[in-house]
Amino acid sequence: MTNTSLLGPWIRRFLLEYLVDERNLARNTQASYRDALILLLPFVAGSLVKHIDQLYIEHISADIVRRFLLKLEQKRGCSVSTRNQRLAAIHSLARFIGERSPEHIAWLTEMRSIPFKKNSKQTTMAYLDKPEMDALLNAHDRNTPQGLRDYTLLLFLYNSGARSSEAANLAIKDLDLGNSPSAKLVGKGGKERRCPLWPHTASNLVTLVVGRAPHEPVFLNRRKQPITRFGIRALVKRSAQNASRKLPSLRTKQISTHTIRHTTAVHLLRSGVDINTIRAWLGHVSIDTTHIYAEVDLEMKAKALAQCEIPAAALDSVGHWTNNPELMVFLKSL
Hints:
By secondary structure, this protein is mostly helical. Helices cover 56% and strands 4% of the residues.
């Protein structure tokens, strides 16, 4: 193996030159690729009993990558979608190296032969009913600075439907807390949108950011450092555990920041907000992505209609009401 096969310099060029300068990928995409390598490299080094700085390109074999992907699913509990995102980062790294180092084209072919796993279409979408969302919001003591921060962050997520990365990157200068309060969110691909805020959300944000510089992040962790998207996810999970003690129905649901995002959309739809407005509210590029919430709402209406359906035994052969006792049982159940 030559010095050109040493993995470290290639990783540096991939992360700092290729993703940033050549591809100009979104910051979240850059972070996703970096996170994939943070997980992969220690796994490869541990499997080969080597230090990370001693790894060569050929050490990342197809067999090791397959075992790495299996670990993501079985040990870390990652979804198929997350597994495929990690593999996409590995494919991109392999293509970057193969296109600039012809002697590694065979290795590139080996990496690219690792297939993405088919992800079965999700049939249900997790969201919270209003009492469940209220229980989540009330899971913290607002009389303490930490509890107020946690409540305000959860309230902001529910109000805006923001992704965890959007909330983590929110700066004080992005807030307009005047007569028509709103927040500027930067979503996927650097696309910006302005989201209206409830007066209650705005008043809590004012308390949180008063006396601080405009360039500072709105939400800080316990060490007064910018909170990360992982910190936000941990907060949501911790809040769900606390709330489930008072509302047992929460124990049966997998609650994440995206669950709150879904909840925002469903509650907006139930309030009569049109689907195109919800698309803009959530920052979806295509309205097709937002139609899933309309389908959920139709499913709920169909179930409600089924509960109100008149039993066949309550009608005679020509569709007239009968004095059947089953009818009386049905009417009393309404």
